[in-house]
# Entry
Amino acid sequence: MNANLTPNGNSVVQTINAGQRHALTGILLALAAAIFFSVKAIFVKLAYRYGVDAVTLLALRMIFALPFFVVIAAIEERRRGVVRPSRGQMYAIVGLGLIGYYFASLFDFVGLQYVSAGLERLILFLFPAFTVLISAIFLGRRIGRVEVMAMLLGYIGIAVAVHQEVVLDGEHTLFGAVMVFGSTLAYATYLVGSGELIPKIGARRFMAYAMIVSSLAIIAQFVVTHDLSGLLQQPLPVYGYGIAMAVLSTVLPAFMLAGAIHRIGASQTSIIGGVGPVSTIVLAAIFLGESMNALQIAGAALVIAGVLLLGVFRAR
# Structure
C-alpha cells in the first residue's frame, strides 16, 4: 500500500483537510449558537417594555418553538434505517431535557431575583470550567493546557466586561448566588450528557426530543402558576418577540449547539460559549442604545482571544 494512503484509500492530506474542515465547522456552529442564544436578552428587554412578566414570556417562547421541534422529530423518525433509541437512552434524553433547559432556566430565573445581572453572569459563565471538570472526572477526558488557557482568557474577559454590574448587597444574595450556581452546574451536566448521547442517536434527533421535553415542562409550569387568559391578552409586539425568540434564540441555536458538540465535543463547545456575554453587550449597544466602555471592549478582546486560541489549536 502507498505510504501516503490511509486504510480507506484517501491520502493523508485529504484526511487532515477533512478533519480541519470538520473542526472548523464545529467552531463556527458553536460561535453562531452562542451569538444567537445571546440575542434572547435583547428580545426580552424589548418585550418587557410592554409589561409582560418573565414566566409568560418564557411560555410564549416555548409554545412557538414546540411545533418546530415536533416536526423535526417526526422527520427524523421517518428517515430510512433509523434505529429507535433504547429505553435507557429515552430516559437519558428526558432527564437531560429537564436538566439543561428547564431546571437550568428555572434556577437562573429565581437567582436573578436576588442577585445583580453582573454577578449572575460571573457565576453562570463558569459552566465551561464545570463542563471540562465533569468530563475529566466522570469520563476520563484529559484537560489540555490550551483548553485551560482558553478558559482563563475567556473568563477573565467576562469578569472585566461585567465587573461594574456586580453588586453584592442584598439580604438574600447568597441564596440567589446558590441558585445561579445550580443553573450553571445543571447546564454543564447537560452539555456533558448530550456529548455522550448525540453520537449514538444523532444531533438533530437528540435536540428535538430534549427540547420537546423542556418545552412541555415550561408550558406545564405556566399552566400551574398563571391564568391561561394571560397568554391571549398580550400586546401584538409581545407575540412578535416571542416568535423571534422561538426561532432565532431557541430553535436555530439549539441545533447549532448540537452540531458543534457532535464535531468538537462538549468541553470545547462550552469554552466557545463564553462569547455569549460579550455578544450580548455588543448587541445591546446596537439595538438598545446601551453604551460600551473601554473595559467592556478589553474584556471582549480577551474572550475573542481565548476562542481564537482554541480555534487555532483545533485546526492544527
Notes: The radius of gyration is 20 Å. The mean pLDDT is 83.
